[in-house]
Design a protein that fits this description.
The complex is a heterodimer of chains A (about 110) and B (about 120).
Chain A lengths: L2 E3 L4 E5 L4 E3 L2 E3 L5 E7 L5 E7 L5 E3 L5 E5 L4 E6 L8 E8 L8 E2 L3 E6 L1
Chain B lengths: L4 E3 L2 E4 L5 E6 L6 E7 L5 E8 L2 E5 L7 E4 L6 E5 L8 E8 L9 E2 L3 E5 L1
Parallel strand pairs in B: 2-11
Antiparallel strand pairs in B: 1-3, 3-8, 4-5, 4-9, 5-6, 7-8, 9-10, 9-11
Classes of the chains: A mainly beta (about 110), B mainly beta (about 120).
Chain lengths: ~110, ~120
């Protein structure tokens, strides 16, 4: 079975400061990892994914994520937070098998304080 | 940029009634999905659909649920006899292919309230 853990329900960061949203995963075999963002009353928007190769993945809106196999982590980062980054962030995983489903974490609410 | 669209955005129904949620996936995508998010909880997979067949479903997707691609553009989720616990946000998603590397793109969701 595959699973994702997001240990923080909420992360608060001052505007202009770097942000990190944490994610760890569990899957058999090589993982395929995703970050999605959900703004209020909106759907899930794809930010970035890790498939293979470089452990640092760059995505939309200046976000990046670092894959760490030994720590089974895929933390989302941004060098300088904007107030408009305030939203709910979901980490997700798919395993290497033929399963279609994406398994999501519980989400982390990011609050960027002006 | 092409998007997944869903209608209606909100639906209120009485317990025991049938509801049909509609989705228009991205036009060149071949795999379609439904997920749901009960308020305050995480997004849960319901079903995936390819080549006019269900390819995978979760334990949530019981006999009360069905999916259909009635024409070349729409993808629907039907709940035959709604229960209070079916109240949730329902997300449709689509992807070009079905492998684990593929990104699933999500629609804005339909908020279903069962009274």
């Amino acid at each position: 079975a595959q699973s994702v853990a997001q240990p923080e329900d909420q992360v608060n960061v001052a505007e202009g400061n770097p942000l990190t949203v944490k994610c760890t995963y569990s899957v058999s075999g090589n993982p395929y990892l995703f970050w999605y963002v959900q703004y209020p009353n909106r759907g899930l928007q794809f930010l970035l994914k890790y498939i293979t190769g470089d452990n640092l993945v760059k995505g939309s809106y200046g976000f990046e994520a670092e894959f760490n196999k030994s720590q089974t982590s895929f933390h989302l980062k941004k060098p300088s937070a904007l107030v408009s980054d305030s939203a709910l962030y979901f980490c997700a995983v798919r395993g290497p098998g033929g399963y279609q489903k994406v398994t999501f974490g519980t989400g982390t609410k990011l609050q960027v304080i002006p | 940029e092409p998007e997944v669209t869903q209608t209606p955005s909100h639906q209120v129904t009485q317990m025991g009634q049938e509801v049909i949620l509609r989705c228009v996936p991205i036009s060149n995508h071949l795999y379609f999905y439904w997920y749901r998010q009960i308020l305050g909880q995480k997004v849960e997979f319901l079903v995936s659909f390819y080549n006019n067949e269900i390819s995978e479903k979760s334990e949530i997707f019981d006999d009360q649920f069905s999916v259909e691609r009635p024409d070349g553009s729409n993808f629907t989720l039907k709940i035959r006899s709604t229960k209070l616990e079916d109240s949730a946000m329902y997300f449709c998603a689509s992807s070009k292919a079905g492998g684990p590397r593929e990104t699933q793109y999500f629609g804005p969701g339909t908020r279903l309230l069962v009274l």
